[in-house]
Amino acid sequence: MHDLYRTQRAMRAMRRAAMQRGVIAILDVGTSKIACLILQFAGADRPGADDGIGSMAGQGAFRIIGASTTRSRGMRFGEIDAMRETERAIRTAVQAAQKIAQTRVDHVIATISGGSPRSYGLAGEIDLGGRHVRDGDIAAVMAACDMPEIGEGREVLHAQPVNFALDHRTGLSDPQGQFGNTLACDMHLLTVNGTALSNLLHCIKRCDLEVAGLASSAYLSGISSLVEDEQELGAACIDMGGGATGVSVFMKRHMIYADSVRLGGDHVTSDISKGLKIPLDRAERLKTLHGGVIATSIDDREMIALGGDSGDWERDRRKVSRAELIGIMRPRVEEILDEVRARLDAAGFDHLPSKQIVLTGGASQIPGLDSLALRILGPQVRIGRPLRVAGLPEKAAGGAFASAVGLCLFAAHPQDEWWDFEIPADRYPVRSLRRAVKWFKENW
């Protein structure tokens, strides 16, 4: 935990330094696209701006001055499958964004959508002896949380305090300065596959960039697509990407659960390609222009030309009804939603005061998805779009850019985490995170 603590603090320090210089880049590396946005901050961080506990601590004003997207290559299920192809795609996106912004960036904050994320709930408690809570007590109660067995090859990505209790009072967001005898803390720990994380870090380094932060795409989509009331009362964000579907649950403005389904919009495209025996690019076009999941009475009469340039006159003039296209797409979308429902059941989502579910991501734009989701996920479902950010191009304002916009918000005002506090060396937990940080020594 000591090594993880130092490395994460180093990344936070790099983020602050980049913000003081005025420019930092965010990099959303997904299965279907790679997006790079360059942020310009209005002035340096104020002294003490990061004091406090909460997602809005230390927020700064920023504007997007450069934006670029390119087709993702070498990615599968949100993880790197071909290092060189992914490196070229990242370089293309970053260089195009730098050209638009007319500036160079050396630090990026990246997101990871794969890695099979797993959530853990931790609890810690310390004795105060009737005095008031100091900043060191916040650090000590987090260090008192017992580390679970996360498994071999798993690495910690987020370690966020989600609740504080002082004696009989719970639900405190910032107990500093209050008097009490016992201080308790509930912390949410998110781990990912270490190999997937190491590959992403190494790929970014090969592009001559320094990593100033890492975050889960499921978490980022939630903070950009859920409104304040939904984050407060309890809601789930379903980020339907190309190769994976992220699931995150928020309560009291904190993420309390995250998971992913290794299915996404690219699998729907693949089903269309195999079912109609057409290339993948033409299948993607059919899905975008004519796809859907709810058939109507006129869909049998609406014929769609498949086209082609194979030289076979009969084959290139084939047509298919929209009802047949929907019949290919719907089973796969139902499978994705069924898997999401299973993840929400495992998280105890039905016990939250509000059961709002927000669908976002590129695959959420399939016509009729909200109606189908009502039958599988529950009655309170809506299609979400990310918050508007100053300077964000209109073409990047849709659900496909939810994680990219969330990464902008995370860069400006990240949620306080375990490594944001000064942890005394003698307070590291006995069952520490040392087993989970070998990759930092090898790859940092």
UniProtKB/TrEMBL annotation:
Mode of membrane association: Peripheral membrane protein
Top-rank taxon, per record: Bacteria
Compartments, record wording: Cell membrane
Keyword annotations: Cell cycle, Cell division, Cell membrane, Membrane, Transmembrane, Transmembrane helix
Gene3D superfamilies: 3.30.420.40
Keyword hit for Magnesium: no
InterPro entries given in the database record: ATPase_NBD (IPR043129), Cell_div_FtsA (IPR020823), FtsA/MreB (IPR050696), SHS2_FtsA (IPR003494)
GO cellular component, one term: cytoplasmic side of plasma membrane
Oligomeric form and interacting partners: Self-interacts. Interacts with FtsZ.
Entry's family note: Belongs to the FtsA/MreB family.
Function field: Cell division protein that is involved in the assembly of the Z ring. May serve as a membrane anchor for the Z ring.
Protein name: Cell division protein FtsA
Gene name tied to this protein: ftsA
